Amino acid sequence: MMSETPSSRRPVLEPGERLAEILFGLIMVLTFTGSLSVATADRVEVRVMLVAAFGCNIAWGLIDAIMYVMGRLNERGGDRKTVLAVKRARSHAEAHALIRRNVPEVVGHELTEEAMERIRQRIAGLQVASAAPPVTGEDLRGALGVFLIVVASTLPVILPFLFMSDLRFAMRVSNGIGLLMLALIGHAYGRASGFSPWWTAGSMVVLGSVLVALTIALGG
C-alpha cells in the first residue's frame, strides 16, 4: 500500500515485543520448575518435568508466532481501512478528524490544520491495493523470531537440572537464574520505556514471582 525505505521500516520485532516474548516463555517454564518438590521428586520426575516444560514452550511459541502474524495482518489491514476512509471522506474536516484519531495523541495535538491538509493530500495520492494485505517475508521472520525467543527462554532455567545431580541445589540455581532473568527483563523494559530501570527490575521480579505462584496454585 505504501512504500517504505530500508531506513524507515520498523524492526521485525520491537524491543518491547522481544522482552514480552522472553517474559512469557520464562513465566511458563517457571511454573513447571516451581511446582517440583525437591523433597519427593526423583530423576524420573525431573525428566518428565523438563520434557513437559520444553514441550509446553514449543507449543506456546508456535501459538505466539501465529498470533504475531495475525497481529501484523490486522495492523496493515487497519492502515488500509484508514487510508480508504480518508480518501472517501466527504469533507476535508472529516478527513482531518480521521487522521488525528489515528496518530499518537501527543502528535495529534501538535498538528496544525495546514499540516493535516498536507497529510490528507499525500494520502489522497496513495495507491491502495484492491485486496487485503498478504503475509510477507518480514511477518514470517518475525514469527520465527517469536518462536525462537519463547523456546530459548526455557533453556537457562532448565539447564541446572540437566547438569547437576543434587536436585535441591539445581532447584536453587534454577530459581536464581529465573529471578535474575526477571530483573534483567525489567531493567531493559525500564530503559526502553523511559521508566527507572531499577524500579522496573524490582517490580518485574515481584510481578513474575506472583504470576508464577498464582499459576501453580490454580493448577497451571
Structural class: mainly alpha
The global form is elongated
The helix content is: over 70%
Kindly give the count of domains. 1
Number of helices: 9
- The total count of strands amounts to 0
Sheet with the most strands? none
Give the H and E element order: HHHHHHHHH
Strand content: under 5%
What is the radius of gyration computed over CA atoms, rounded to a whole number of angstroms? 23 Å
Q: Taking all residues together, what is the mean pLDDT?
A: 82
Distance between the termini: 43 Å
| Poorly predicted regions | 1-8
Overall description:
The protein is an all-alpha fold and 220 residues long. The chain has one domain. 75% of the residues lie in helices and 0% in strands. It contains nine helices and no strands. It is elongated. Mean pLDDT is 82; it is low at 1-8.
